[in-house]
Amino acid sequence: MDQLLINPEYPHILSTLIFLPLAGAILLLFVRNEFFARYWALGITSLTAILSIPLVSAFDSTTSKFQFVEQVSWIKSLNIQYVIGIDGISILLVMLTTLIMPLCVLASWSYIKTRVQAFMVCLLIMESAMLGVFMALDFVLFYVLWEAMLIPMYMLIGIWGGPRKIYASVKFFLYTLAGSVMLLVAIIWLYINNGYSFFIPDMMWQNYSSTSQIFLFLAFFLAFAIKVPMFPFHTWLPAAHVEAPTAGSVILASVLLKMGTYGFLRFAIPMTPEATMTLAPAVLWLSIAGIMYGGFTALAQHDMKKLIAYSSVGHMGFVTLGIFVLNQQGVEGAILQMINHGITTGALFLCIGMIYERTHSRELSDARGLGKHMPIYVTFLAFFSLSSFGFPATNSFVGEFMIIAGTFEHSMVLALACIPGAVLAAAYMLRMLQKIIWGDTDNPDQSKMKDLNVREIVTLAPFLFFVFWIGLGAQPFLDLIHVSVENLLNNYYSFTAPAVAVTEFIIH
Amino acid sequence: MQFLPELTLLGAGLIIFMVSLGKTNAELTRNIAIGLGAAVLVATFLSYCAEGKLFFGAYQVDLFSQVFKTLIAGAMLGVLILGKNLRDVSEKIHAEYYLFLFMSVLGLMMLVSSVELISIFVSLELSSFAVYIMVPMRDDSGKTRFQMEAGIKYLLFGVTATGFMLFGMSYMYGLTGSTELATIITKYSTMWANPAYVISMMMVLAGFFYKLAIFPFHFWVPDVYEGASNETTAFIATVPKLAATALLIRLISQISGDGQVIINVLMVCAVASMFYGNLSALVQKDVKRMLGFSGIAHAGFVLLGILTFQITGYANAMYYIIGYVLMNLACFLVICNVSEKGENVMIDDLSGLHKRSPLMAFTLAVGLFALAGIPPFVGFMGKFMLLTGALKEGYMVVVILAAINTAIAIYYYLSVVRVTYCSDPEDRNDVAAPSMLINATSVVLLAAIVFMGVSPQRFVDFASTAVKTIM
Prior knowledge:
The structure holds two protein chains of two kinds.
Chain A: H1 13-29, H2 34-58, E1 67-75, E2 80-86, H3 88-107, H4 116-135, H5 139-148, H6 150-160, H7 165-192, H8 200-203, H9 210-227, H10 236-243, H11 246-271, H12 273-299, H13 304-324, H14 328-359, H15 375-388, H16 395-410, H17 412-437, H18 454-472, H19 475-507
Antiparallel strand pairs in A: 1-2
Chain B: H1 4-21, H2 26-46, E1 52-54, E2 59-61, H3 63-82, H4 94-113, H5 117-134, H6 146-176, H7 181-188, H8 195-212, H9 221-227, H10 230-252, H11 260-281, H12 287-306, H13 311-338, H14 353-356, H15 358-372, H16 378-392, H17 396-422, H18 436-454, H19 457-468
Antiparallel strand pairs in B: 1-2
Helix pairs in contact in B: 1-2, 1-4, 2-3, 2-4, 3-4, 3-10, 3-13, 3-19, 4-5, 4-10, 5-6, 6-7, 6-8, 6-9, 8-10, 9-12, 10-12, 10-13, 11-12, 11-17, 12-13, 12-16, 12-17, 13-15, 13-16, 13-18, 13-19, 15-17, 15-18, 16-17, 16-18
């Protein structure tokens, strides 16, 4: 238990964050007033966001231990505990989740017209589950929340989604669930081989045999790679993104996808270091494939949401690339890029949603020439698009730069292979931007389009704020994660050293 | 006191018999039946702590049997409440229907206490024959007489399984010279490698496999589920499974786990049940048929707990079957209330149920997600503990196959939820508002499904205590 740190000044802060939205959702079940449901959801999510701020101020960035820990026995006979805590790897993701949820509520303010309170209930339950996933330090708790999250997300897509919502929602559910059943077997195996404990920190850095590590890694990989999603497991993503309502797309892009990469960092590397070392090259090349595939496919899209969805595949490819080059710069860049992608892509989905609310079309050709009539809107869109392809002074530039720098350190070939991906990103984003702002000579009549109202500006402004904050001064963010990443990599190298030595001995 | 629940049931049967002699309306008969069902439940509570032996040792009353009797009485009350006046059974024979239902439950209650071959056989037959009659009691609405087909199939398969069981029992008697389980088990402990022992054991198990619908004794399930009226199916799908599990645990907990042959057979049956049930359920259009196939798969999971030959395994199996009964009751409550005249419910008939009846749609969704094994419901916890228990004993392959089955199963459960929540009702009629009693039952079921899933500790502990009394 030496990996835990209990902060006495904030004894139950994490539990409050998890259970506040859940309690709000349960209360909302009994309300039949749409007006109230909107304000209630906004109030609860904002309160959660405000309550989460002390996490950053009180976070001790000099230790890699888990902080704000709470520990209660849950199921004694199986030694399952309710234990939660955060470290440098999860703190930014927790903050991203709490801060993005009020904006999701705002984005659905007029977008959702039917069954409003059910929608808000789903959003609030999602928030509880997502926060829980990033905080859980017990594997069963993690798995329960990881799976339980599927139901509200399925409902979000399946009920409030677009024309092909049923296909998309079922595909989303089946892919994710099918991926995680082997994770369950892996969890039980770890439990039995760890003195019957589900405590995650205890499972890390153990000497499991090489063969079992490989199997464990494959089980982890299947679950997490589908969630990320990595090429070739990505096919559910465009379908789900395109059909989901705006808030659903934002949650999906900003938070859900991060769970996959978070899983790699939290479970795959610490629990199966040797297997990670053996299989990392394959994962790296899959990442490159994802970057190229996402880029080229995005270039060919006419549907704006699909374009952003495929760009996500590419961006997440960069994140997995950064994680599996396994050096300080790469991993830190990957974590930062997870946040950046959450901010930028989330904002882009909000932008697309705002056009969709006005024209009920996501076709790029219908949105041509908006620049003349919606100046505020295209300003926001332009900044987010620039951020998306990593323009200097925006957030993604920092993340992508670090990842590519880390990749150069790891292997020249790999780095050269991923550069075209960065160029592709510029190509497809600029193509979209050009069409929306100027269009062609035969633009559709956009003169009736109203520019953003105050609510929409309030929704987008925080995203822009973070785009520039991280873009111009990323150091405070990196400080939070630095020690945890350093500790992760140190442990990783000390645990793979014997294997490396054996390999070298065989080779020479 | 020891025999109170059974006597109450017998009395209830007599009262219903009196009712059947006079002329009554359906509503009154149903209320009497519900009242008597509640009385039986109270009787099981009263005799909850009873212990002892009756009928020269053929009948054992212990904590294990009393727990199961309480569960059986509770499930029976649930089935009685959720049925809406048996709309698909001619009003003239409602009283008789309830009479047979009570007799079947009496058989099941006796079954969980039986520790002697003849009494096992008698109570099993009592419970089965009553149901053989209940199945064809359905009105011949479509003039296709498919309820008769169902009845005959149920009877023929049942009799075949009984034949197997009797043959096995004759072997048991031949090998040991006794019909008492305790004596048989003591004598068996030295001959677990003897082929005759294995054969006798498997044949006796066949009788219970038939009740629990485990591959290869599952063939009756789809047709009987489809052919019997909704209320009868609700009964068949829940109450007998409790008793069958109880007796399976009672029998298997006594024999030695050294006999690898038995474990292998159980393992094959479990995995085959899961795959057969889940794969067949994928293509069903009738909700009851689908639940039937899913029941076969779930029986496989129950077996997964039993084949560990550990107290925790039996306790997990017990927990799982209780959860299964709750989830199934929730689903059947919806089916019985959605069907207007008692006809079978197709999956498409559930379209847009969320608009027509929000509580029913919610109950069905929770029931199905729980059956699929999605947390935080009881189905997940049950599956999780069963898999943990089996992996602890080193059955890696079985655990992986079972996990794969979870992934297959989600598809058909999800397709029902999809229809319920994500499609429009088109021109389907509104569901008649369910009565307060039914609404209250569905809320209780929902609460139980969530509560058992979130805090399984006390239930498993309790099940372990009950199992320990028979070890």
